[in-house]
Design goal:
mainly beta, 2 domains, 19 strands, TIGR02217 family protein, DUF2460
Length: 208
C-alpha cells in the first residue's frame, strides 16, 4: 500500500465532517417484508475537510499537502477528532482500555484493536496507525513499562517474551485513521478579500 506516514494538519482536520459508512443490501419482497444483508464486514470512514479551511494560509497548506501526496496516489494519517482514543473522548487512555488478546505461552505479537459495543452486540476495529508515544500495555491489569514494543505503522504489539497462558493483554492508545484523498482535483476559489475556499475535499479510509 502506497502510504506516507504523515498526518493531515490538525488545525484543519478539527473542522472536518464525516464518520463511518456501512454497505447494506436491502431487498423488498412482494409481501412488503425486507431481507437485509451486510455487504461489508467492517465499516469505512469518509470525511470532507473543506469545512476546516478558514484562512488563505489553510488553503495553501491543503494544496501543498495534496500535491505532496500526488492526489489520490498516496495514503496518509488523519485525526478523527470524534474518535481518536482507546477510551471515550473525554477520558485519558489507560493500559486497560482495550483487550487485544489472551496469552498462550507462545504468541508474542498482538494487534491493537478497539471494540464498539451497544445492547449486547459489538464490533471490533483493527487499529493500524497508533500515535507514537501514546501506547501503553498491561498484562492482567498490570502496566508493563518494558519488555514490549509497538510498530506505529501497523499497530502490532510485540513482546520480548510470550505472555503466559491465560493472561489478559490490554492496551491504551491514541490513533489516526489511514486515509487517501478521494479526488484528483481541488476546486480552489480566492475572493477579492483574499479569503480562500475549496468546495469539497473528500477523504476515504484505506482499510488495507
Amino acid at each position: 500500500m502506497a502510504f506516507h506516514e504523515v498526518r493531515f494538519p490538525d488545525d484543519i482536520s478539527r473542522g472536518a465532517r464525516g464518520g463511518p459508512e456501512r454497505r447494506t443490501q436491502i431487498v423488498e419482497l412482494a409481501s412488503g417484508d425486507e431481507q437485509r444483508n451486510a455487504s461489508w464486514a467492517s465499516s469505512r470512514r469518509r470525511y470532507d475537510v473543506a469545512y476546516g479551511i478558514r484562512r488563505v494560509d489553510d488553503l495553501a497548506a491543503v494544496v501543498a499537502f495534496f500535491e505532496a501526496r500526488n492526489g489520490r496516489l498516496y495514503g496518509f494519517r488523519f485525526k478523527d477528532w470524534a474518535d481518536y482514543k482507546s477510551c471515550t473522548p473525554s477520558q485519558t487512555p489507560s493500559a486497560t482500555d482495550q483487550v487485544i488478546g489472551t496469552g498462550d505461552g507462545t504468541t508474542t505479537d498482538f494487534q491493537l484493536v478497539k471494540a464498539y459495543a451497544s445492547g449486547g452486540q459489538a464490533w471490533t476495529r483493527t487499529i493500524a496507525k497508533p500515535v507514537a508515544g501514546s501506547v501503553t500495555v498491561a498484562i492482567d491489569g498490570v502496566e508493563q513499562a518494558s519488555g514490549w514494543s509497538v510498530d506505529t505503522t501497523t499497530g502490532l504489539v510485540t513482546f520480548n517474551a510470550a505472555p503466559a497462558s491465560g493472561v489478559s493483554i490490554t492496551a491504551g492508545f491514541e490513533f489516526d485513521v489511514p486515509v487517501r484523498f478521494d479526488t484528483d482535483t481541488l476546486d480552489v476559489t480566492l475572493d477579492l478579500e483574499r479569503l480562500g475556499s475549496i468546495t469539497s475535499i473528500p477523504l476515504l479510509e484505506i482499510r488495507r
